[in-house]
Amino acid sequence: MEKSSLTALVRNHLEVAKTSSSGRSAATVYGGHEHVLRQTLIALAAGHKLDEHENPGEATVHVLAGRVRLVSEAAAWDGRTGDLLIVPNSRHSLEAVEDSAVLLTVAKVLASPVLNTEKG
């Protein structure tokens, strides 16, 4: 079992985001390319955003600190500390209304295995 402090990660990554030219900082908290589940802490300085992108699978955004806006072509949702936003299955962006940190959880869609139906 592993344990990490999201509070400490938020504090550290917000400091990095505020001094970074991109206005952001991120770290994988759990998972990765070899896992279906991936959790990433993303810190954004106020006014910065993650540009519009595709959804890689089922995903949620848990707002750990601050205020964010999740925007898709069809709608926009505001999230504050403690809110859980369901990421739409469409192109979307995430903007920090104020200095913010979120926990992005993604369950990636796996490619279906190709079945070999030939008999030898």
UniProtKB/TrEMBL annotation:
Transmembrane segments: none annotated. PANTHER family: SLR8022 PROTEIN. This is LuxR family transcriptional regulator.
